[in-house]
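REQUEST FORM: STRUCTURE PREDICTION
Request ID: SP-0412
Submitted by: Lab K.M.
Chain count: 1
Length (residues): 299
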Amino acid sequence: MSTAIDPRAADLRERLRGTLVAAAATPMTTAGEVDLDLVSAYLAGLVADGAGGLAVLAHTGRGPYLSEGVRAAVVERAVALGVPVVVGVGGTDVVAQARAAAEAGAAALMPFPSPGDRVAEHRAVWEATGVPLIAFDLYSLPCPPDVLRALVALPGVAGLKAALLSDAMACQRTIAITREAGRLAITGEDRMFGPSLLWGAEAALVGLAAAHVGVTADVLRAYQGSDLRAFEDASTRLDRLAEATFTEPMEGYVQRMLWLAAEEGRIPATHAHDLYGPDLGSEPLSVKDILTGTARSPR
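STATUS: Completed
RESULT:
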């Protein structure tokens, strides 16, 4: 049953419907230095190549590890590109982060999944900012169905992102709960992207679009069309990319996406470093090998 939604959240829901939101990485050096001009160029390239929105400071962007000043500047650079910007917020200072993101022009806020009272946290962020929320059901800390229903019943929640990795039944349930509440079902399923669209997802917010964004955009575009073979071909390419990047150790996906972004010239190799994930060695992936099916075993 559809539940009441604030007009601001309803506007965002419609703005994001059918949109690919790229969950962007934050390029940095081995010393953790962030070049904001490089960030601007990187984000602009994602938009130019098919992203209709940007998610910054989320899991892929390592938002919780960045300084307050860098976080604010990244949001401002993203907002300047004129597309909807979803900002990840979380931790002990979630409301303060949310206020800063709102002041910088965020179109939406996406609280990180937490083991605490998620409904109370979402309500606090909404009351503090009035910025629409994207709820988040993540495989490492999945929401029970009753919590999901409570989240999507909040007036400020515009949609819910499902990122359940390999649990098809849970993904289907999350999408159904979201749609029943009249909210936007957003796929974050890098490993079940095509199927999640068939199950009812109406938009996408994925880390797989942090590089080679066209591979993901092609699937969404083909799904919205009428060419079944084009959808099949695009999904096959995306699945090859996801299989090589979203694999164990799963936290290594950020480093793998940074390597691919450097390989295609989006960022220099000097800034293709994830300081907060597992050590994968120094030999980057090759997207040419991935998409032709000749990639070595992923690490």
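NOTES: The first helix runs from residue 7 to 16.
Reviewed by: T.R.
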